Known about the structure:
Elements: E1 4-9, E2 27-28, E3 31-32, H1 33-42, E4 47-54, H2 59-66, E5 75-79, H3 84-92, E6 102-107, H4 115-128, E7 130-136, E8 142-144, E9 150-153, E10 160-169, H5 170-183, H6 190-194, E11 202-205, H7 216-230
Parallel strand pairs: 1-4, 1-6, 4-5, 7-11
Antiparallel strand pairs: 2-3, 6-10, 7-10, 8-9
Amino acid sequence: xxxxxxxxxxxxxxxxxxxxxxxxxxxxxxxxxxxxxxxxxxxxxxxxxxxxxxxxxxxxxxxxxxxxxxxxxxxxxxxxxxxxxxxxxxxxxxxxxxxxxxxxxxxxxxxxxxxxxxxxxxxxxxxxxxxxxxxxxxxxxxxxxxxxxxxxxxxxxxxxxxxxxxxxxxxxxxxxxxxxxxxxxxxxxxxxxxxxxxxxxxxxxxxxxxxxxxxxxxxxxxxxxxxxxxxx
Length: 232
């Protein structure tokens, strides 16, 4: 079985979420939202250790908040940057020089990722060099002009909604970040950086439960899934 180091990114301020605390520390059934994904990575057989990236503003308070939930776990906590890309790099830069090592980057705002999905993405990356979790688009997609008029209908069979984890060889990921910095490119995920090299990235079917929490409505969906899973 292949193994990887995880970089769990929770360095954002969650401005769209609202509320008195960043969304990754919002209490869900008595635990910070972030604690759920950390627990899953902690019990995943393919993950050697985890680098957790927290906001650089209020870093010490954030570390104190999450500390009870990672006690005794193989988790290193670091401060992130001003953007998601900078925060991911803050985590990746803590890793050693072994270019053959795999790195699984996960968004801390996706609390319900399963161990099976993590393992599948890591295994696929070990075979192909890069792999991401994603789910197929099921709605009809329209390409629209800047002034709001439909231009054409896209072939939805060719489109997937990207999730995390996204896993790549460490050397490949470093080259992708170096190229992005050189070109002043800011991507929306790690795959968008690796694509520019270019390098192959394979899709691993994701999970609808692996939602990204951006609003209180998403928290309600998360609680529903947790209750459903507990009743099984």
